[in-house]
Amino acid sequence: MFSQAEENIPQFLSKNLQELAGSQISDVVYLQTDKDLYFTQENLWFKSTVLDSKTNAPSNRSHILFVQLIEEKTDTPVWEEKYEIENGFVDGHLFLSDSLASGTYRLAGYSSHSYFKGQKEFYAFKKIKILKGEPQAEEDNQTDGSIHFAVFPEGGHLVSGLESRLAFKAVNTKGYSVEVSGTLYENDQALLEFETRHAGMGSFMFAPDANKTYRIQLNNQKEAKIEAFPKIQPQGKVLNYLGANHKDGYFKITQSPGQAEEKIYVRLQAKGVSSQVVVGYIKDELKLRIPIENLPQGITEVTLFDKDLKPIAERLIYANAHKKLYINAQLDKSEYQTRGKVRLKLSVTDETKTPTIAHLGLRIFGHLYKNTSDTKTIETHYLLSSQLKGRLYDPSYYFEAKNKNRNAALDLLLQTQGWRAYKWNEANLKEKGDNEPLVFDYYKGKMLNSIPNMHHIVKAFSFTGDSLKQFKPLMTNSLGRFVVTSSYFKWVEHDFLYLQGPFINEKIFPFQLNTNYYNDINNHRIKKNNHYPFTTFEKEIHEPKPFVLSSAHTRLSQVTVKVKKNRYGNKQSQKLKALLSFDYVCHLNIFNCENHVFLPNSTRPVKGRTYRLQSGTPFVYPYLPVGYNKDGLDFEVNLKEIMAQSNIKRIKGFYEKKEFYQPVYDKDYIDDGFPDKRSTLFWKPDIITNEQGEATVEFYCSDINSLYLGEIEGVSGSGQLGRTDFEFTVTKQKN
């Protein structure tokens, strides 16, 4: 039946899986913001963490993060920009304009290795709320009278006469968990009672009988929709998970009485990497202790194979929750005065208490700007949400040490979510196939009527600084194709990159440039399911009160506001009118010489002087910089017309970087009379601890006396994740 020798079967089971997972080279994107609630005309600061999907280590695969801010109600993008990914991280911001409506928005990120055509589910976004004017009450979408109740046999099936664990889950039609109790009936006789233990989930043990009928009845739930009771197999094997410690996982396999002794295989795999294949023989019952200490923290799939290598039982377990970053945040005080100085010392270790170098993001903000219903964290995102299909209820519960039943509750989640929901399950890997990107780290261009087998030069330039130095050639291949890589977008950060096609022997060679990535994103985005954690304990969101001036501040009688124009506006039009100053003459007096492309000794052409074309034909330079006359620049010249006439196209560079504003209220500070009304006191997305695992930050409080929340989360170079939080109060400064 199998050509492999008996001793090679474990290797075969591992290799088969790893070959499937080998094609799944991908990253997972996570976004953290400086707070959860915003007003319009504020800056939104964000950090994006881009990790390898298998190791959770920072990824260097992608270099561009395409970012959208999407209005939830209309599913319409209101902001689209691209940011540079540097060694797996993005430090970004955007401005929330006054034109934005109140409501919920999604800040979403897409990269060349995280967003694919065949992808059915999307997780790489952060929800925020924008407040404007009077707060609007949101519709209560949680309560619903109808209940859906489903049961999940451990391992996937029930076998007559063998004790099995039957997990169950109760939710309403909108997906919110419901606490229930009920009775299991056997031949219409009450057999046992049960009740939920966490988030609408629970389980019980019983030995079914294939010759009897079973039904479930819920207490006080007449409208409940109860799924049909699972079919009971007359014979077979059952897999039970007994628990684990830091070194080993314990399992029990039972087989129907009277069957011959049989060889079985148990495989443990995490993210497509097989860690163990255990071989054993079973007659009636077999208990196994399987080493798990080398597994990473996270979901592990356990599969039982029969002697013919047919999978007959599968379930998910959560291994090594202790393998994480332990982040300690130590404040120098618990209470500060307005404009007081705060000193925060951070220390990071791993599970062995070894100091660890980690990349951390820190946000400190007023408690009113916290969305208490948002339970998404770096741990829930990478360890649960992105690994399982479907939406998860309050996943942060399973990572909070104060919840003593969190491990048992997490095991219930994995039983009721089902092994088929695991992203790295073999069947899911086969169905998914290879990853075909939707966006790339470059833009493609093509000459439309290029000379065959000739390499053309496309001029790339910007208007920053000395224009003569802001020029780079792009060489096409023999087919007239070229690519604009991410390095060009960094080169023109906060600006446009202009591309000018060649002029050869006075002939224009037009070109095509693919800039439709956001169209591709939007066309596929509507086909994907957006999954975000949810809870049933959302608290009423109170709009933060406007800042009130104290008597210590002076109210100005008049304020004049000067509006800053669009950063891509008239300034660019004006400079573009001098576009042809990018023509050059080499030291041999050849105009736009393709053999001496804009060398340091190149000069600008001068009107009225004679130069030679590449062909050797002499000509008198006929051009004047476009839009230039005796009165200076003509501001009325249409930008699009100039670009079309000059064979030019343009692409936005990376969105500009800004530093988060941090006032320093030291002894040298001169009070300008203006109040400090920062709701985010401190935002630092790029804290890197030293070899001792330590880092220290300092900042100053604002004029707002309130409770402030601090949240830190991050990752080590080896892929360990961690987070912690803290709080402190700010009181009015005493005179």
From TrEMBL:
It comes from the Bacteria. This is Macroglobulin domain-containing protein.
